Automatic annotation (TrEMBL):
Organism placement in taxonomy: Bacteria, Bacillati, Bacillota, Bacilli, Lactobacillales
Organism this protein belongs to: Streptococcus gallolyticus
Superkingdom as given in the UniProt entry: Bacteria
Name of the protein in question: 2,5-diketo-D-gluconic acid reductase
Matching PANTHER family: 2,5-DIKETO-D-GLUCONIC ACID REDUCTASE, NADP-DEPENDENT OXIDOREDUCTASE DOMAIN-CONTAINING PROTEIN
Active site: 49
Amino acid sequence: MKFKTLNNGVQIPVLGFGVWQMIDQAQCQEAVENALEVGYRLIDTAAIYHNEEAVGRAVSASGLSREEIFLTSKVWIDQLGYTETKTAFRETLNKLDTDYLDLYLIHQPYGDTHGAWRAMIELYKEGYIRAIGVSNFSTGRLTDFALNTEVVPALNQIELHPYKQHPIIQATNAKFGIATQAWSPFNSGQDNLFQDATLNSIAKKHGKTVAQVILRWQIQNDILTIPKSVHLERMKENFASFDFELTPDDIKQIQLLDRFPNNYGPNESPELIERLLSL
């Protein structure tokens, strides 16, 4: 496994395992146990996923020491705020059956994010969190945080795949020394991504799968990534993304697939915000 050093000196695996949409508790626990057995050492969950307890059981059942596993979770909008976030964090620790987190994120940039951040800074300084960051922050919201808070976020987790590459957000992250981490690196299989002619041509040339090409493209571009799967063979396939190199021309071809190159951030329409606040 390769690692990246965050802006506070903490090392994070460049390839992790996500559990978004794994609502079935038994399935989630089995998937995480399998992922850990394959070799994944970063597990990404969130309060809104409603599977933190299953992740905690899988970690306990793995036989690995807690220090070997990098655990990420996130606080949802309804528990943003100084007091609320401290309560949410304690609930997450209890569900994961751990006494600290490696990374804790503000899941969405709506609500009392600054109050939540003050709470997270205190928890970070007290040693309960090794690194703190954000998720789904646009360039403007990220810049506000970077310039107007005591601790610059260590990481910004965003949707990022060949059809939505967010070069402007990536550049903003880099400007402030904030790591970029991709959720939904395969676009959840939408828009026929796995049938894309360019990606299939590159995959055929290297004797790899489209999924492996996507993950390799992200890793070579200094993007942390957290693919998910409930299928053991696909977990193994995704994990085997370190033994080949894409050429500069391969990377250029993938960059040309971006459908929103001038996008400054996630959709911030009033309708979307209202929907998120209602969850």
